[in-house]
Amino acid sequence: MLFLKRYLPLVICGFTGVVFGIQYYVPHKASEDLLTFINDWMIIIFGFSMILALASLFHVHYQKIRRRQSGWGFSLIVFIAIIVTVIIGIISQGETVDEKGLTSFGWIYTNMLVPLSGTMFSILAFFIASAAFRAFRARTLDAFLLLFAAIIIMFGRVPAGEYLWSKIWGAEFPLQMGDITEWIMGVLNMAARRGILLGVALGAIATSLKIIFGIERAYLGEKE
Question: How far apart are the C-alpha atoms of 37 and 20, rounded to whole Å?
Fold first, then answer.
């Protein structure tokens, strides 16, 4: 049992990690067929994981409803919405549009899911604005430069900024607000972004190697 629970997953993970690490650099038909085969299995596993996720979701909300915990009414709405949407989706055969226009499934997507998604993103905008306000307090030189660049970007992305710039410096001025904005985004921002991406990539490679060689075992439920 110890072998099945601890060592067999490590062997499978290490073997598949090494094989597909090599597969990426082998431009052979057998290598491509192997990748296609594994991708098909990944789609199947993803489907079963969706079933497990739904079962977990139903279990959590059922416990809330059964115990009448705070907000259990929202859990009841989740149950009703999922069941109704699944039934209508089956009736509509998963199609959002037919020869008559929007199907019932398409109506739910267009008139319910899209507005709800927009509402969630609008709420997220307030959190971003709050975080930006805290980050842009010019207490240090770095914070002042960040605030100054943010102001230029915001003014350069809206017509009002271009209008004010042309009124102050004139329309014939060789350097426009849009040019400054594009330079900041294309040079300064891109340089910082590439540095972050390089750090993320190196971190992902290091973590992958630790998992492949059995150093990182958190996915087995073990503590680091």
Answer: 12
| pTM, two decimal places | 0.59
Burial of residue 14, with CB atoms counted within 10 A of its CB: 0-12 exposed, 13-18 middle, 19 or more buried: middle
The answer to the question of residue 209 being in a domain is: yes
The beta strand positions in 73-222, using DSSP E, are 97-98, 101-102
- What span, in angstroms and rounded, lies between the C-alpha atoms of 96 and 114? 13
Which structure tokens are listed for 82? 């999922």
Q: Output phi, psi for 98, to 5 deg.
A: -130, -165
Q: What is the number of other CB atoms lying within 10 angstroms of the CB of residue 161?
A: 19
| DSSP state letter for 194 | H
**Which tokens belong to 169?**
């410096």
Domain containing residue 198: 136-224
pLDDT tens string 53-76? 989 998 999 999 998 888 889 999
Amino acid at 213: F
Please give the tally of structural domains in the chain. Answer: 2
